[in-house]
Amino acid sequence: MKSVMIRKPGEIAVVDSPMPAEPEKNEVIVRIKAAGICGSDLHVYHGRSAFAAYPRIIGHELAGEVYQAGSLVSDLKPGDKVAIDPVISCGNCYACRIGRHNVCSSVKVLGIHVDGGFSQYIKVNAGNVHKIPDNIPWEEAAVIEPFTIAAEAVDRGRLSADDSVLICGAGPIGLAILQAVRRAGAKAMIMDIIDSRLERAKKMGAEKVVNTNNTDLVKAIMDFTDGEGVNLIFEATGSISVLELCVSALVSQAGRIVVLGYPRETARITPLDIMRRELDIIGSRLNRNMFPEVIEWIKAKEIEPSSIISHVFPMEKVREAIEMYDSEPEKTCKIVLTF
Ligand SMILES: NC(=O)c1ccc[n+]([C@@H]2O[C@H](COP(=O)([O-])OP(=O)(O)OC[C@H]3O[C@@H](n4cnc5c(N)ncnc54)[C@H](O)[C@@H]3O)[C@@H](O)[C@H]2O)c1
Ligand SMILES: [Zn+2]
Ligand SMILES: [Zn+2]
Q1: CA 206, 243, 40, 98: dihedral to nearest 10 degrees?
Q2: Which one of 63, 98, 123, 322 has the lowest number of neighbouring Cβ atoms within 10 Å?
Q3: Do both 141 and 10 map to the same domain?
Q4: Are residues 97 and 32 part of one domain?
Q5: Is the pTM of this model over 0.90?
Q6: Measured between alpha carbons, how far is residue 38 from residues 32, 159, 284, 300 in Å?
Q7: Number of neighbouring beta carbons within 10 Å of residue 30
Q8: Cα of 62 to ligand 2 centre, how many Å?
Q9: What is the pLDDT of residue 71?
């Protein structure tokens, strides 16, 4: 079968790789039909991932159909249309025991810690495989995973319809969060430095979009919230200075800041800012069984997954797709590969 492999940092190739061995009792082989390209695939490509070893088959935003199911798998059969949750956990550590397996002390993510699904076939545990309705186009099914990131983030942030929300970053993740926030009925403002992405946000119902290259964000927030600051912020730019500004100047009293971006620099944050406002600064990583919920959102047409997709390429053109995603953020948003 064909797979997309990062042989070593900077070297990507479509290679022949062995078909997965027969599934164990609780395993399933999925024939991949479509898969989204994500920033973390680029981190592996560029050798910037803290977790990847090489060679590595990348890809963790995956949709396909069941090809073969193990003997104890009762709810999935060949031909079923599915999306794959890329999170693998131990089941025993503290985080797993309290139901937070997405931050398992030995968490593994398909395509990063272990080989992923930019491949014609992948074998995974049946528990990671979620049935989806037949009428979801493959490309949209491939972006269910980024929407599970959004579902996790709004859950972690305890979003309510009364919140005034700021989303920092209008990339695929920020835009997926925007849809999750709009779905809950809260009003959302979003910021970025790329107009084309902010245009997408406007179409998705953002009440206000701010290009911080030409607009003062603090003033815009204070106008938007009558001087109160926003109650709930999602940091999805990955910029340390944006996080610092969120804490020092943008969040309201008793506000929450959900941190999704993960730069490695040290932030300059004043504890007084946290204490005097009783802030919650909350991490959000991957997803905690959010696939069923997001699939319900799609069935109910409460979100529009296709609206974050800018391009679809056949997997043979993966190098072109990744380079475009890397170098032309103004032209791209989520890029999906078909298999
Ligand atoms: N927590 C998680 O589980 C998780 C999952 C996926 C991605 N992420 C992280 O979330 C972030 C968003 O992911 P994405 O795929 O949308 O990435 P992306 O790079 O496509 O989007 C980031 C957006 O932020 C904007 N931006 C960057 N710096 C900015 C600044 N200083 N001011 C204003 N805008 C700025 C960019 O123009 C871009 O549109 C990334 O940092 C990514 O690593 C976290
Ligand atoms: Zn991803
Ligand atoms: Zn664990």
Answers
A1: -90
A2: 98
A3: yes
A4: yes
A5: yes
A6: 16, 25, 17, 26
A7: 28
A8: 10
A9: 98
